[in-house]
Amino acid sequence: MTDRLPVEPQLRSLDHSKLAAYCAALTERQFPNFILFSKLVEFGNTTQLETILDGVWQSLVPGGAKMNFEVQLDKVEANMPDLDEYEMYGASPALDAVVSLYSTLVCILEADVDEAIAVGNVSRECVAMFIELSEGDDQMSDEQIIRLISNHDLMVQEDEFHEEVIERLMSTKTMTKAFVSDLRELARNQGFSNIGISDDDH
């Protein structure tokens, strides 16, 4: 499921801070995948990553607090689960969430649209893999698998989320505190991740 990110042309038209906001929104929506995995296997430092993600959101507000994101890169990397070490499926979406946070920081530091596109692709492929593993089977042809993924509610919701975020970013001139707050609320998705996982205790 590595077809071109549908919103790529619009992403290329966004300025630096809006690219960062797109990355932050997608990372936020994936984050319950890491929280739940972290809790189940007692891996990583959820609080540390949440503090960094909070710092990203704060940096988007004009005059907001600025965190030294370069220093945070190693901390984020230290929270990436090794898929060779964890056989369970949950390690993969957890890793995707942390990779997305890492790319978000790089996007902020380097103003690189390709990092934003990478975050978009990671999130979509995470959804595609979940659908294929949970509902696909060995008897299905590649075409059937692609059709299953493309038409699945989770993938439709995923693409609609990307479009909604982009639409909001393109229709605002300045990212006010209220705008950033509303975008984060949208990304929180009532506590459900891009693959429908929720951590009720959190």
Explained architecture:
- This protein has 202 residues and is mostly helical.
- It has a single domain (8-190), classed as YP_001051499.1 domain like (YP_001051499.1 fold like).
- 69% of the residues lie in helices and 0% in strands.
- The protein is built from nine helices and no strands.
- The chain has helices at residues 8-11, 16-41, 46-60, 69-78, 91-110, 113-135, 142-151, 153-171, 177-188.
- The chain starts with 7 loop residues before the first helix and ends in a 14-residue tail after the last helix.
- This is YjaG family protein.
- Pfam families: DUF416 (PF04222).
- InterPro entries: DUF416, YP001051499.1-like_dom_sf.
State the CATH architecture: Up-down Bundle
Total beta-strand segments: 0
Mean pLDDT: 95
**How many alpha or pi helices?**
9
**Radius of gyration based on Cα positions:** 16 Å
The largest sheet, given as strand count, sense and whether it forms a barrel, is: none
What is the succession of H and E elements? HHHHHHHHH
Cα end-to-end separation: 31 Å
Question: In the CATH scheme, what's the topology name?
Answer: YP_001051499.1 fold like
Parts with pLDDT < 50 across at least 5 consecutive residues: none
Name the beta content range: under 5%
Task: Indicate the percent of residues in helices.
Answer: 55-70%
Number of domains: 1
Question: What overall geometry do the principal axes of the alpha carbons give?
Answer: globular
CATH class: Mainly Alpha
Helix and strand content put the structural class at mainly alpha
CATH superfamily: YP_001051499.1 domain like
Protein name: YjaG family protein
InterPro entries: DUF416, YP001051499.1-like_dom_sf
Pfam families: DUF416 (PF04222)
